[in-house]
Amino acid sequence: MSRPLALSLFVLAFACSVFAQSPRLYSSDGRNTFLGNLNANPNDPDSIANPHGRYGSRSSPTSINNPYSRYGSIHSPDSARNPRGRGAPRP
Fold first, then answer.
1. What gap in Å lies between CA 40 and CA 60, rounded to an integer?
2. pTM over cut 0.90
3. Residue 26 neighbours by CB under 8 Å, 6+ apart
4. How far lies 78's CA from each of 5, 65, 75, 83, in Å?
5. Angstrom distance (rounded) from CA 66 to CA 56
6. Rounded to whole angstroms, how far apart are CA atoms 45 and 52?
7. How many domains does the chain have?
8. What residues make up the domain containing 63?
9. Phi, psi of 12 (to 5 degrees)
10. For residue 75, is it within any domain?
11. Which terminus has fewer CB within 10 Å in the chain: N or C?
12. Which residues pair with 47 in a beta bridge?
């Protein structure tokens, strides 16, 4: 493989990975609230894996990681963590 072709393929692969969108998580409670990006990137400001972000913090009201929030509590019917919940978040 020629060097320019290999470099072009590398740049193309990198660009595709950078611009690929993560699945987005929304509430199913009728409000269709955005709850974050479903990925494991702690640097993504909208990721549920970002412990300092709005959607990954354990203290944010819109985080599924907050055990006291509507979307993270085991007692809330709108939570992903409630096995009997009726409106768990959906991608």
1. 18
2. no
3. 32, 33, 34, 35, 89, 90, 91
4. 50, 13, 9, 10
5. 8
6. 8
7. 1
8. 39-91
9. -65, -45
10. yes
11. N
12. 37
